[in-house]
From TrEMBL:
Keywords in alphabetical order: Signal
InterPro entries given in the database record: Blactoglobulin (IPR002447), Calycin (IPR012674), Lipocalin (IPR002345), Lipocalin_CS (IPR022272), Lipocln_cytosolic_FA-bd_dom (IPR000566)
Organism lineage string: Eukaryota, Metazoa, Chordata, Craniata, Vertebrata
UniProt KW Zinc keyword: no
Protein name per the record: LCN15 protein
Organism: Nyctibius bracteatus (Rufous potoo)
Gene: Lcn15
Length: 187
């Protein structure tokens, strides 16, 4: 009996590690994924996000890929009286649909968990910096409107991600602000 207890504990630990692995869209196609997306909903345990989530509005993400397969992301976010533009480059990793970003102060792990390419995508990001690591999920849509079915699917995913709870969710209201080419300014 005493020999089975450590074996059982080891098996449970392996299952927990296997369950902690974030899935990536099977057969990910970068060409189909590239283009403009709207951030329709987000959930994160980041303290900055949690303080700002009730005042946030939908933003626009433009995704492109370098010839090497790296993911370039341009985010236009309405903040106060102006639009902020943030640009990030993530290096391609394995499997396809998995990207990493590293700077002197932080590491980011980005995964396209699920997408149908034409209507929605669900992305997972793990961010590690000098502070506590944070986890986020984003529901991206090609149109500003998000269907109740997609939103429900997104909500059902939240408890499956370690560290996230539904009270951390922000369903972002539509915004006519920060449309590319509509007079937005960068920081």
């Amino acid at each position: 009996m005493t020999a089975t207890v450590p074996s059982l504990a080891l098996a449970l630990l392996c299952l927990l590690r296997a369950g902690a692995e974030v899935p990536v869209q099977p057969g990910f196609d970068a060409e189909k994924f590239a283009g403009t997306w709207h951030v329709a909903a987000a959930v994160s345990n980041c303290s900055v996000f949690l303080k700002m989530k009730d005042a946030m509005k939908s933003s626009i993400v433009t995704i492109s890929f370098t010839p090497e397969g790296d993911l370039a992301m341009k985010l236009m976010w309405p903040l106060l009286d102006k639009c902020q533009t943030f640009e990030q480059l993530f290096q391609r990793s394995e499997p396809l649909g998995h990207y990493t970003g590293t700077s002197a102060q932080e590491k980011r792990d980005l995964r396209v968990m699920e997408t149908d390419y034409g209507r929605y995508a669900i992305m997972h990001e793990l961010h590690q910096s000098g502070r506590e690591p944070s986890t986020a999920l984003q529901l991206l849509t090609r149109e500003q409107d998000v269907s109740p079915q997609l939103l429900q699917k997104f909500k059902e995913l939240i408890p499956t991600v370690k560290g996230l709870t539904e009270d951390m969710l922000a369903v972002l209201p539509q915004s006519g602000e920060c449309q590319e080419g509509a007079g937005w300014h960068t920081r």
